[in-house]
Design goal:
By secondary structure, this protein is an alpha/beta fold. The protein contains 9 helices and 7 strands, in the order E-E-H-E-E-H-E-H-H-E-H-H-H-E-H-H.
């Protein structure tokens, strides 16, 4: 038997509707909010749809927002924007929550899925599972320890729900009219400007998943890495 563990994303469920505590029963959005979301949906559908064909068994793992040492994306990108002064207001509102997961916990979820496919493929084949760690801060509250580590001042004021939505639409219009890349659009609005987080109860129940690294330890390791990184 051949096995495939497909790395998907929580973003397959990103839409115009905020999500607080979503799970695997949620349907894919009929109209993806961004091309990235569309590609993740199609990729996951292909992987899950291949389960049982020609001896192949598959599982899709949907990590929530992954963080940890050596990640060049969210932490470094955001801190650099704060440092150069290009961000004067925080998008969304302070009660908007999103979820994060330390990279080692994501690896653990993949290994559990691979083992279960070998032992009981009919139990999990073709399914998708969220992997998180019950860590759902506001995006900017989550960034503050990393900014403090590098002595970078972050804004305190939020643009608000309506202002953020208008800014996202305006940026998308600029992109359509001029073809220029823009730093902000509805994808960001919905991921960090509105609540967007999920439960990992299903993978805990079916695969025995529990985070190996706590949020506190994940932050400690990531801060230690950041200490030697130029921002």
């Amino acid at each position: 038997m051949r096995s495939l563990i497909y790395t998907s994303s929580e973003d397959v469920l990103l839409s115009e509707v905020p999500v607080a505590g979503g799970d695997e029963s949620y349907a894919y959005p009929a109209r993806p909010i961004h091309p990235y979301v569309g590609t993740k949906i199609e990729g996951e559908k292909l992987a899950r749809g291949a389960d049982g064909r020609s001896g192949l068994r598959t599982v899709a793992i949907r990590p929530v927002h992954v963080y940890g040492p050596h990640d060049p994306h969210a932490i470094l990108t955001s801190l650099r924007a704060f440092k150069d002064g290009s961000v004067s207001l925080l998008v969304g509102h302070e009660n908007a929550l999103f979820d994060v997961v330390y990279v080692d916990n994501v690896v653990h979820g993949h290994l559990l899925a691979a083992g279960m496919l070998e032992r009981e493929p009919d139990r999990v084949g073709g399914r998708a599972y969220f992997v998180g760690e019950d860590n759902k801060p506001n995006y900017f509250a989550w960034l503050r320890p990393y900014a403090a580590k590098k002595n970078i001042r972050m804004p305190r004021r939020y643009l608000g729900r309506m202002g953020t939505a208008i800014a996202a639409r305006a940026m998308e219009l600029v992109h359509r009219v001029t073809g220029r890349d823009v730093p902000f659009h509805r994808f960001h609005q919905r991921v960090i400007g509105e609540s967007f987080w999920f439960s990992h109860a299903a993978i805990a129940r079916d695969l025995g998943y529990a985070p190996l690294v706590s949020p506190e330890e994940g932050e400690r390791r990531t801060l230690a890495w950041l200490d030697g990184v130029e921002v």
